[in-house]
């Protein structure tokens, strides 16, 4: 079935990086009371959702019908026993992004996309091969970012408890907690083992930060987007319109360490930059394709350079891929995270929910970025020392002391000069 852009969520904060759709009811219409009284029915409902919608029709070479027979033979004396069985059953698929959420975890997921969080400010993913819990990126100005936690860090222990065999939902539940309390994370970074004691806080995310810069003649509009949350599109619109009034000559759009968020926000933001052309398409297991296309609602035609890094994931990759494929912007930095899977979140009758991988998304040119990411047009990787300096003084991010920003500025200057040269040449020919 076609999937409308309003249903998508991409890269839910502090859970997993993946595209998600949200439905109002479970696939099977059962009453809440019936499901509460029948844990086995909950197990079967989850099985049915996977059977109907999982992206791989072979279920990753698993005999899914035999799995149903096995789990429906069991007795479940409580909802908790059913929850455990469901998680065990879904692991058979070998897809960490198809997962079950108990009522508390589901509520956390909904909070994640609202723009306000309680915790330490980390986005997590689970490596599909190693099963390691990997930091996508810390959210700016949060306990995690201030302490120096970095993208690609592996969380090996939470308050001394090993994360071996632990999924992302379980890790999130341990990391989150009341404001003012602490949690200790043991991190593996290359060959180093580090320990961080973090105090939990209430985190209100304002996703867009913008400023007018005089780094180039005519002015530069610098916009940093840290998450595609519910208010991101409005804040982005306000930022572009404000900078247009000041007559900037070009833009630097900073998506570094942006883990994703709502698809609707990413599509709406892409439309602000792209006049016409495809933005993103999704392909399900039947090969059905749904495309989102720009429709002449762009706010500016000024040249754009996009900054990305390994922490730029999912919705960030949709936006940067759309700008790159439409030749609307040059991408500067390092290869992005590489997450191109689409999930559907199905609420269940007892307040729990499940996310099932139902499709993958492609850039306008048909690139499958899953596990690969977006390759920058201009590559520049920070040294370990440069990265430490930016982490120690985050006010340097997006300034002339930020090497990647400086490279973006040089790239933008070159692009503006080329446009002026082409315009002058065209004008001379017209005369």
Short description:
This protein is an alpha+beta fold and 431 residues long.
CATH architectural category of the domain at 206-279 and 286-339 and 361-422: Alpha-Beta Complex
The biggest beta sheet reads: 8 strands, mixed
Mean pLDDT across every amino acid position: 86
Structural class: alpha+beta
State the total count of DSSP E strands. Answer: 22
N- to C-terminal separation? 54 Å
Q: Number of helix segments?
A: 12
The percent of residues in helical segments reads: 25-40%
Radius of gyration: 23 Å
Query: Unreliable runs, pLDDT <50, ≥5 residues?
Result: 1-36
CATH class of the domain at 206-279 and 286-339 and 361-422: Alpha Beta
State the CATH topology of the domain at 206-279 and 286-339 and 361-422: 2-enoyl-CoA Hydratase, Chain A, domain 1
Basic shape: globular
CATH superfamily of the domain at 206-279 and 286-339 and 361-422: 2-enoyl-CoA Hydratase, Chain A, domain 1
Strand content: 25-35%
Please write out the topology.
Blueprint: E1 8-10, E2 19-22, H1 32-37, H2 39-53, H3 64-72, H4 79-91, E3 99-101, H5 103-112, E4 116-119, E5 122-126, E6 133-138, H6 143-147, E7 154-158, E8 161-162, H7 168-175, E9 182-189, E10 192-199, E11 201-204, E12 208-213, E13 220-225, H8 232-245, E14 250-254, E15 261-262, H9 263-273, E16 276-284, E17 289-295, E18 304-308, H10 315-325, E19 329-333, E20 341-347, E21 353-362, E22 378-379, H11 384-392, H12 403-430
Parallel strand pairs: 2-20, 13-14, 14-18, 18-19, 19-22
Antiparallel strand pairs: 1-2, 1-15, 3-21, 4-11, 5-6, 6-7, 7-8, 7-9, 9-10, 12-13, 16-17, 16-21, 20-21
């Amino acid at each position: 079935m076609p999937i409308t852009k309003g249903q998508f969520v991409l890269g839910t904060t502090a859970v997993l990086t993946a595209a998600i759709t949200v439905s109002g009811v479970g696939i099977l219409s059962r009453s809440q009371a019936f499901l509460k009284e029948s844990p086995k029915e909950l197990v079967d409902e989850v099985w049915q959702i996977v059977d109907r919608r999982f992206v791989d029709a072979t279920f990753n070479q698993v005999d899914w019908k035999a799995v149903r027979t096995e789990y429906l033979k069991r007795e479940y004396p409580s909802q908790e026993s059913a929850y455990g069985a469901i998680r065990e059953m879904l692991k058979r698929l070998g897809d960490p992004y198809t997962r079950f959420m108990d009522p508390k975890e589901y509520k956390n997921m909904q909070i994640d996309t609202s723009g306000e969080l309680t915790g330490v400010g980390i986005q997590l993913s689970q490596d599909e091969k190693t099963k390691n819990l990997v930091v996508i990126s810390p959210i700016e100005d949060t306990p995690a970012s201030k302490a120096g936690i970095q993208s690609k860090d592996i969380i090996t222990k939470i308050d001394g408890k090993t994360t071996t065999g632990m999924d992302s939902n379980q890790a999130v539940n341990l990391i989150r907690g009341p404001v003012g309390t602490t949690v200790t994370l043991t991190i593996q970074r290359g060959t180093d083992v580090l320990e961080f004691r973090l105090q939990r806080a209430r985190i209100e995310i304002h996703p867009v930060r913008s400023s007018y810069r005089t780094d180039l003649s005519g002015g530069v509009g610098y916009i940093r987007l840290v998450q595609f949350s519910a208010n991101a599109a409005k804040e982005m619109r306000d930022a572009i319109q404000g900078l247009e009034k000041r007559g900037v000559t070009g833009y630097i759009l900073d998506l570094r360490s942006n883990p994703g968020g709502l698809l609707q926000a990413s599509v709406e933001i892409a439309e602000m930059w792209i006049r016409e052309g495809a933005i993103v398409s999704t392909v399900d297991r039947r090969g059905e394709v749904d495309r989102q296309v720009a429709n002449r609602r762009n706010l500016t035609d000024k040249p754009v350079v996009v900054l990305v890094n390994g922490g730029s994931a999912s919705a960030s990759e949709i936006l940067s891929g759309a700008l790159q494929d439409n030749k609307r912007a040059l991408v500067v930095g390092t290869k992005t995270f590489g997450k191109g899977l689409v999930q559907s979140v199905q609420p269940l009758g007892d307040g729990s929910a499940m996310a099932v991988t139902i499709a993958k998304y492609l850039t306008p040119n048909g690139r499958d970025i899953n596990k690969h990411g977006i390759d920058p047009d201009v590559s520049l990787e920070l040294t370990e020392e440069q990265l430490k300096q930016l982490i120690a003084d985050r006010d340097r991010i997006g300034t002339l002391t930020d090497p990647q920003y400086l490279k973006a500025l040089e790239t933008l200057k070159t692009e503006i000069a080329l446009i002026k040269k082409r315009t002058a040449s065209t004008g001379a020919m017209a005369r």
